[in-house]
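Please check this protein record:
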Amino acid sequence: MKRFYAILDHVLYWLLFIVLGSMAGIVAANVFGRFVLEQSISWAEEVAKILLTYMTFLGAAYAMRDNSHYAFDFLVQKMPPKLMRPFLAFRWAAVIIMSALLVYWSAQATIGVRDWVMPSTNLNRALVYGVAPVGTFFLILYALRCCVADLKQPQVHPQEEAMEI
């Protein structure tokens, strides 16, 4: 299983690297074209939006890898040790169930738009919508790994000290 997650980590890392690099390059080229050459790239904005969607869903899965999604840990920090594991099990079950519902509903939306094309690129909209179920499925895989790790040994993050200004 460690090998599976190592491969998944590697694939997601490079996908995100390529997506972010491509998005930055396309936007920079379009800005250069618009302000220096006075000619915009007709498809640049549409492709940048597609890449932003990819970065959002794949990035969410990658953030789940380190259990680094935003969370309110106040209750967990104050909770008696006896209640911590059941609470964490409930929390992870809610995350996994809601993510599974998102996989289902986003797959339905992807199927629903499979005949639509985007105006500038003539790309199928299912190409854009399809990243939601795929990215959320990867998020579930990482959530399962975090759940197992949390239930074996709960990770309570110490409160960060307030910064003095």
Summary: The chain is about 70% helix and 0% strand. Residues 31 and 63 are 30 Å apart (CA to CA). The two ends are 46 Å apart (CA to CA).
